[in-house]
Amino acid sequence: MPSTKAIKNLRNQAALEQGWRCYYCQLPMWDASPKEFMNRYGMPPGLTKRFQCTAEHLNARCNGGEDVAANIVAACLFCNATRHRTKHPLDATKHASVVRSRMAKGKWHPPQVIAALGNRGEPPA
Ligand SMILES: [Zn+2]
């Protein structure tokens, strides 16, 4: 069983490759410092929490998904938790398409998030 540290390293590696943007919603994520994120984007504290960077197993651990680089991406806490909230989570590809279509309609994150981050992660001009 790999250590939590090993998973964190895999997550960091994935996050770097993703430019610290969520695998699903593509908005920026924070790691160690929510404060800096809040200040940078003018995000309320209650909404900042959801952008914490987490390790997401593409093939969920409960389905035998392994802790290896090919199976781990970096996702924001909200997208990660939402996928796993149901009894039979969608596979990662389906979840990604649900998230992206809701993002496109402005119906994934609340309006305050879109105001702060823009809908594709670029702050509104
Ligand atoms: Zn996300």
How would you explain this protein's 3D organization?
- This protein is mainly alpha-helical.
- The protein has one domain (4-117): Herpes Virus-1, CATH 3.30.40.
- The protein is built from six helices and two strands; from the N terminus they run H-H-H-E-E-H-H-H.
- The radius of gyration is 14 Å and the shape is globular.
- Zinc ion is lined by residues 22, 24-25, 27, 75-76, 78-79.
Give a quick rundown of the structure.
With 125 residues, this protein is mainly alpha-helical. The protein has helices spanning 4-17, 34-41, 45-48, 77-83, 92-104, 111-117, and strands at residues 53-57, 72-76. The N and C termini lie far apart (47 Å).
Pick out its properties.
two-stranded antiparallel ribbon, 8% strand, globular, binds zinc ion, 6 helices, Herpes Virus-1, mainly alpha, 125 residues, 42% helix
How are the SSEs ordered, and which strands pair?
Layout (H helix, E strand, L loop, with lengths): L3 H14 L16 H8 L3 H4 L4 E5 L14 E5 H7 L8 H13 L6 H7 L8
Antiparallel strand pairs: 1-2
Zinc ion binds next to strand 2 and helix 4.
